[in-house]
Design brief:
285 residues; 6-stranded parallel sheet; 3-stranded antiparallel sheet; 9 strands; 36% helix; binds adenosine monophosphate
Length: 285
């Protein structure tokens, strides 16, 4: 596989993507914060299969971290990420330094009503404003493309898909399934923060969701029952501090009392210095 081109400036990535499109290529785009694992690589492979040229961005976005969160300690591994991208057939990596993306004079942001207040938004007040702003900026420099996101961050996908429609970005958002370790833990760059004991305890998230899935398959449609079951699994672990356990509508993200067709069961738990999220879609074919 040829080395991907590592591009540091907005002007250069814009030129690169414009040139690809002028040559008739479709552009597949995977935004990431790096420290790439199999979850990211599944998005990259899917984007490579669907498109003629493949762009990955690697940028630890300061504006989506709140005060006291892990911006400084977030893993940064550009050399090994570049190697993984090469093996996955990535053509260009956009890896700008922070001051390339944010001018000190910047005072425009992208935010949303309603959706940003729910689930993780209730616990990380400015997080989604930071996510939407950087994703909007990345869409503007990459230009028309298909962009790939993980179901792991389900709320993030719903927000970005809403932003694309509301602000008419020439982008199609594609959601890819959660990739898990062999024991069920959803892959995450933040799993590196877990001690061996916390790593074992962290299985309570996927276990709780799996139990909810089984109850749903047996016919349980009352969210209160599903939530109680999931909480029961997590409460067995002393180190797990629940932010939320919810069953919500797949598009509005509002809590639903009785599931008619589909719903998303979503969990956020703090464990040591890590905050872990996971979800399953109930009623999906
Ligand atoms: P991040 O680098 O954490 O910002 O994630 C970049 C993209 O990878 C996002 O769209 C995530 O939803 C996706 N992603 C992260 N972990 C996983 C996973 N375990 N399975 C699928 N997608 C994932």
């Amino acid at each position: 596989m040829p080395e991907p081109e590592v591009i540091k400036t907005r002007a250069a990535i814009r030129r690169w993507c414009d040139r690809a499109r002028e040559e008739g290529a479709s552009v597949g785009f995977v935004p990431t914060m790096g420290s790439l694992h199999e979850g990211h690589l599944s998005l990259i492979r899917r984007a490579g299969a669907d498109n003629d040229s493949l762009v990955v961005s690697i940028f630890v976005n300061p504006t989506q971290f709140g005060p006291g969160e892990d911006y400084n300690s977030y893993p940064r591994e550009l050399a090994s990420d570049t190697q993984k991208c090469r093996e996955a057939g990535v053509n260009a990596i956009f890896a700008p330094p922070p001051d390339e993306m944010y001018s000190p004079a910047a005072c425009t942001t992208v935010d949303q009503t309603v959706l940003t207040e729910l689930l993780c938004g209730a616990f990380r007040q400015t997080h989604f404003k930071g996510v939407l702003t950087i994703v909007a900026k990345l869409f503007n420099v990459v230009g028309p493309c298909r962009a790939y996101f993980g179901q792991k961050d389900y709320q993030q996908f719903v927000l970005i898909d809403r932003m694309i429609r509301d602000l008419d970005f020439p982008v199609e958002a594609v959601m890819c399934p959660v990739v898990r370790e062999s024991d069920g833990l959803a892959m995450s760059s933040r799993n590196k923060y877990l001690s061996p004991a916390e790593r074992r305890d962290a299985l309570c998230l996927s276990r709780a969701l799996q139990t909810a899935k089984e109850k749903f398959a047996e016919g349980e449609r009352r969210s209160s029952e599903l939530i109680a079951t999931m909480r029961g699994c997590i409460d067995q672990i002393d180190a797990a501090k629940i932010d939320y356990v919810a069953v919500v509508h797949p598009h509005t993200l509002q809590p639903i009392a009785v599931i008619e067709e589909t719903a998303v069961a979503a969990i956020a738990v703090r464990m040591g210095s890590a905050r872990l999220i996971d979800n399953v879609i109930l009623g999906e074919e």
